[in-house]
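Data deposition worksheet. Section B asks for the primary sequence of the deposited chain exactly as it was used as input, without tags or linkers unless they were present during the calculation. Section C holds the resulting structure in token form. Section D is free text for depositor observations; keep each observation to a single sentence. Incomplete worksheets are returned to the depositor.
Section A, Depositor: J.P.
Section B:
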Amino acid sequence: AFHMPLFFIPSGYCTNWSKLTYAKFVLHKCKTLLLPFVIYSAIVLIVGVSINQMDAMQIITQGWASNCYPLWFVPILFVGLLLAKAIMSIQNGKLRIIVWILMALIGSFLKYKLIYLPYTLSPAFYASFLLITGTYAKSLQTYILNPKWWVLSICFVITAIISHFWKVNMSWNTINPVVFITIGAFAGTYLIFGTSALI
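Section C:
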């Protein structure tokens, strides 16, 4: 119900959007995310092809998610961070919130219309929404660090009910119905944050 949102939301929580200019931010993410991804992917691809476990052309042309390998989220995080950085650069606070919500709706629309971007980058829009959500969650730090047991109980029930009916699968951009999926993602993430704070 929330394991990948639980990855993206804290990533946004820990990102300092104002520290670097957009160009320096892109360069930094190329060095820290893209370069290690390319090197590791090349090693995995060489080993996988040599033992006949992978189709190199399919991975090169379609991306990792086409073969269900667990590397799909790194390019999604990279593109999501670039989108989120652009959105966080918007000076008008109301416009920034509108564009933030629009990212979730675009991700949902792509899945609803069965539109798949090259290299399975469709989830990047929803990922950018979750990254920015993590940034906005910083203002709720008091509630995160001092959770109430009854709030955690409600989050548990919400997460259990929503995950019973709908599953989020970000690798294939399965985020519909987006409102319920997002509520489940927020409730589950807060449940983990709050439980961690209690422990």
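Section D:
The chain has a mean pLDDT of 90.
Residues 22-50 form the longest helix (29 residues).
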